[in-house]
Design goal:
InterPro entries: Aliphatic_acid_kin_short-chain, Aliphatic_acid_kinase_CS, ATPase_NBD, Butyrate_kin
Protein name: Probable butyrate kinase
Structural class: alpha/beta
Strand content: 15-25%
Distance between the termini: 42 Å
Bound molecules: adenosine-5'-triphosphate, butanoic acid
CATH architecture of the largest domain: 2-Layer Sandwich
Radius of gyration: 20 Å
Number of helices: 13
Number of domains: 2
Shape: globular
Number of strands: 12
GO molecular function: acetate kinase activity; ATP binding; butyrate kinase activity
CATH superfamily of the largest domain: ATPase, nucleotide binding domain
Strand order of the largest sheet: 3-2-1-4-6-5-12
Helix content: 25-40%
CATH class of the largest domain: Alpha Beta
Catalytic activity: butanoate + ATP = butanoyl phosphate + ADP
Keywords: ATP-binding, Cytoplasm, Kinase, Nucleotide-binding, Transferase
């Protein structure tokens, strides 16, 4: 009997899978990938067979036959700009992901694997709120140099799932609230949400505060100088901005818990860096409150670093004049994928068609 939903979330070093029966998670597994195994692939989507085989082995070992799944849902990747929602995985979408039309990202594999598995058993496959969700007004796209556009790229899956959860908890519709939603993970997304639409966000890869591994916004003159200093080739510069930046660059770790231990043992430099990250996060929240013209109902803070009392307290002290603050530490993207699939299966939300939304966005 087809009774389960299979959720697939590929990350840079692991693939997480979740099996759900209605709202109940009956299995969660994290498949770790050896970096040496991944290095041989030129593009992320070339890892398809490798990761698919590992998922199938886990399913077999755990006793879940493929034909017990009624739908397969994957994390969406760097697609063309599209509104938030749940999308049927289409050939056009797969083509864009394989061609990396907006770049390489581990989540590009989510749709490819979900569709591959679903086709074997002849069921539907979906993605939910991919990182490419774009609900910006044109005014938010202008950067200051015509060749460069400000882009909407964010942790949309977790941000929207937590926003829905919070709205339910206070018995309001997400579409009637103005929120600032903050995801504090390896990357940091800070979004202004007006009546359910994400109208502005920093773009965790390129702007906003620095994070455990990323540089965030940088003084552009000095950045240009560094690029042309002759000391770095392009790939090194890219790594310097994303991966080897932020806490990693200053303190040699991307682990906020380790940084807090240093601070507690009296490391003044670690405290300066950590406080500076908190300061920049608070400053970005302030920016988003202006985007919403001060009409902010709540600030919600989520992601792994939301577990940190030290960080959250610093931020709260700076921004609690703006709106009440609610903290949801951690993330459950597998649950968010399942929730999305259920909303479609229970006819609470209409499935979107990628090609139609891309076209209507042009
Ligand atoms: N209890 C805790 N106290 C402080 N920091 C924590 C705690 N638990 C996790 N973190 C920190 O949260 C960060 C990782 O967050 P998270 O797991 O949400 O990110 P990720 O999934 O790796 O990346 P991303 O969210 O960008 O996709 C790390 O710096 C980690 O040390
Ligand atoms: C760019 C937003 C998503 C991510 O950092 O993974």
């Amino acid at each position: 009997m087809k009774e389960y939903i299979l959720a697939i979330n590929p990350g840079s070093t692991s693939t997480k899978i979740g099996i759900f029966k209605g709202n109940e998670k009956v299995l969660e597994k994290k498949i770790n990938h050896d970096l040496k195994d991944l290095e041989i692939f030129n593009n992320v989507t070339d890892q398809y067979e490798y990761r698919l085989n590992m998922i199938e082995s886990v399913l077999e070992k755990e006793g879940f036959a493929l034909d017990t799944f009624k739908v397969v849902v994957g994390r969406g990747g760097l697609l063309r700009p599209i509104p938030a929602g749940i999308y049927k995985i289409s050939d056009e979408m797969i083509k864009d992901l394989k061609n990396a039309v907006r770049g390489e990202h581990a989540s590009n594999l989510g749709a490819v694997i979900a569709k591959g598995l679903a086709e074997k058993i002849n069921v539907d496959s979906f993605i939910v709120d991919p990182v490419a969700v774009d609900e910006f007004r044109d005014i938010a796209r202008i950067s200051g140099i015509p060749e460069i556009e400000r882009k909407s790229l964010l942790h949309a899956l977790n941000i929207r799932a937590i926003s829905y959860k919070f709205s339910d908890e206070i018995n309001k519709d997400f579409e009637e609230l103005n929120l600032i939603a903050v995801h504090l993970g390896g990357g940091i997304s800070i979004a202004a949400i007006e009546k359910g639409r994400i109208i502005d966000v920093n773009n965790a890869n390129e702007m906003g505060p620095f994070s455990p591994e990323r540089a965030g916004e940088l003084p552009v003159g000095d950045l240009a100088k560094l690029c042309f200093s002759g000391d770095y080739i392009e790939i090194e510069m890219k790594k310097k901005i994303k991966g080897k930046a932020g806490l990693v660059a200053y303190l040699n770790t991307n682990n906020a818990i380790e940084v807090e231990e240093k601070i507690k043992s009296g490391d003044v430099y670690a405290k300066l860096i950590y406080d500076s990250m908190a300061y920049q996060i608070a400053k970005e929240i302030g920016k988003m409150s202006t985007v919403l013209k001060g009409n902010v109902d709540y600030i919600i803070i989520t992601g792994g670093m939301a577990y940190s009392d030290m960080l959250v307290q610093y931020i709260k002290d700076m921004v609690n004049f703006i709106a009440p603050i609610k903290i949801y530490p951690g993330e459950d993207e597998l649950e968010a994928l399942n929730d999305g699939a259920l909303r479609v299966l229970n006819s609470r939300e209409k499935i979107k068609i990628y090609e139609e939304e891309v076209y209507s966005n042009d």
